[in-house]
Amino acid sequence: MFRRALLLLAVLGALVAVFLARQSTQEDQVLVSGRNNTVLFLTDSHHGLCNAHLATVSALIENHPSLEVHYASFSGIASDIERITEIARSANPGAKIHWHQFDGPSLVDELSLVGGVQDIVTPPGLPGLRAFADMVFFVMTPWSNEAHLSLYHQTVDLIREIDPAVVVLDSLLRPALDAAVNLNRTRAYITPNALTDLLSPVQPKGAHFWKYPGIASGLPFPVPWKDIPNNLFQQVYFIIRFLTAPAIKNKRSWLEQHGIPHAVNLFESYRQDVPWIAMSYPEAGFPIEVIPDNFRIVGPLVLDVAPAEAQSAELAAWVKKAPTILVNLGSAFKYEEPRAVIMAEAIAAVLDATDAQVLWKMRKTGEYGDGFLEPLREHAEAGRLRLEKWLEVDPMSLYKTGDIAVSVHHGGANCFYEAVLAGIPSVVLPLWADHYNYAQTAEYLGIGIWPNKTLAPDWEAAGLAEAFLETLSGNRGVTMRENAKALARKGEEYGGRKLAARLVAEMAAGGR
Known about the structure:
By secondary structure, this protein is of the alpha/beta class. It has helices at 2-22, 47-63, 78-89, 107-113, 129-140, 145-162, 174-182, 195-199, 207-210, 228-244, 246-257, 308-311, 313-319, 337-353, 377-381, 395-400, 413-422, 435-445, 461-473, 475-492, 496-508; strands spanning 35-42, 68-73, 97-101, 164-169, 187-191, 276-278, 295-297, 324-327, 357-361, 385-388, 404-409, 426-428, 448-449. β12 (426-428), α18 (435-445) and β13 form a beta-alpha-beta unit. It is globular. This is Glycosyltransferase family 1 protein.
């Protein structure tokens, strides 16, 4: 009976996946291209979402000087655009990015209104399933109705004014996506997401449900037999919630009443004439059988605009003093005091036991003092610990010095692929959603460790310290380093940001 029920659910799931994949192909119109050799990028300003776009833009202005490149986003990345342009001008004085700043809140600004990134920290699997589903629906369209409408009209005006041959999109900047869709413009997506997160629904034999772990399940690949019912339930639950979410329906209805046809189109991304430029590549994830023709695999898209010495000579000199562990849990994460205490204790244990040093990107949330640093005081005074609120150097540029021995990160796509392309083993501390799949992927590929699994998303100091030490100098760490270097060599073969830039330039050359 159980086997029959399992089969029926798998078939149902496969049909839903096909529905999701093919829904948009029924009434697709021929896309409209604008002025020849003109490109408009439209992204949010959260670095976890837009770093792949920034990397592509840097390669565009370096290698395709005939293109007219426009970039529209929020104020948070204006300095990044300026920095990329200045560095490119050292080789090409005519390099230019036309900057357009949106008037309104970014995705992270909207998140902060409901508690910020800290409030989307969720456990893996069933305990966090409902919270994860709620979080996804909010992140898919976080803007208030009025802000969404305003950003939509700003984007429509920009597209009409610039008239680009191709619009390059961030799939989570929903108002801009709505504008490009409703103007029927030639467009492409650049995505940092793993191929399996994007494509497991279209894999054969309903594998999305019984083989591939749910994006926030925390389950290994392939899903063990004993965990298939659990995984199946999570996948079906999420699809049903996805298709019936009242928040999305209500927002779509309001926006359509206010002049946005086809608002919050959940199926647009499956159009076969709209390319997805993906920084993931098959060897760097769970095995996948089917990759649709509109997916272009380019390998890691990482921001690496100049050598570390050129970005911060002082920091580049510091990392050369000893093998360095980089602790960087992403651009949005901030430490509450309990997590800061645990991390400090773990780092102290590592520094007590080795001659390594630690570069810790650390920002606080909430009001608390520096007492958590007490176990590290002697190491800080000796110059073996460095705390930074923000890294002055692109992580990839730091990795290229050869002095970073271990990357400790949260399992965000950019952090994961930066370490992959650098050939550096990881300690992954997942906090929400796809982080759990990246943590499992690191272990599956033999390039990283996910400590404290049973406590996730929480930590304890002894488990962290053990993982840091094993990755730094243990037998398992040696194997992980060899695996990581082999995977890096494979990633370099794809072409990365230069290939992404070439694909965008080829689309732009098809304009009027």
